[in-house]
Amino acid sequence: VLYDVERNIKDLPADERHRIRQLRSRPAADLLYAWLMAHRQKVPDGTATAKAMDYSLKRWAALTLFVDNAGLSIDNNRVENLIRPIALGRKNWLFAGSLRAGQRAAAIMSL
Fold it and tell me: What is the pTM of this model?
């Protein structure tokens, strides 16, 4: 639901995005929070599901900050996609073959 709202409002002015987020995203986020709170105790500690729920609940204020600020995106996928090549290559660059090869690879990546 939250991403459906974002898809529909992406080209609207900030004040209109804020209004629609308050109208549609806030109730959806509140329902999700209530569901997480109601179901967390039913999930065994230490499981991946429990960890995901705890992560969400601990960071709830940050996760829902976009609802009150029309200038914020719902996620940071754009930034993550921009830095992915660096993160993927990090381990590979440890073994460039030689110092000079590593320097060349670094020069190419800086372009």
Answer: 0.73
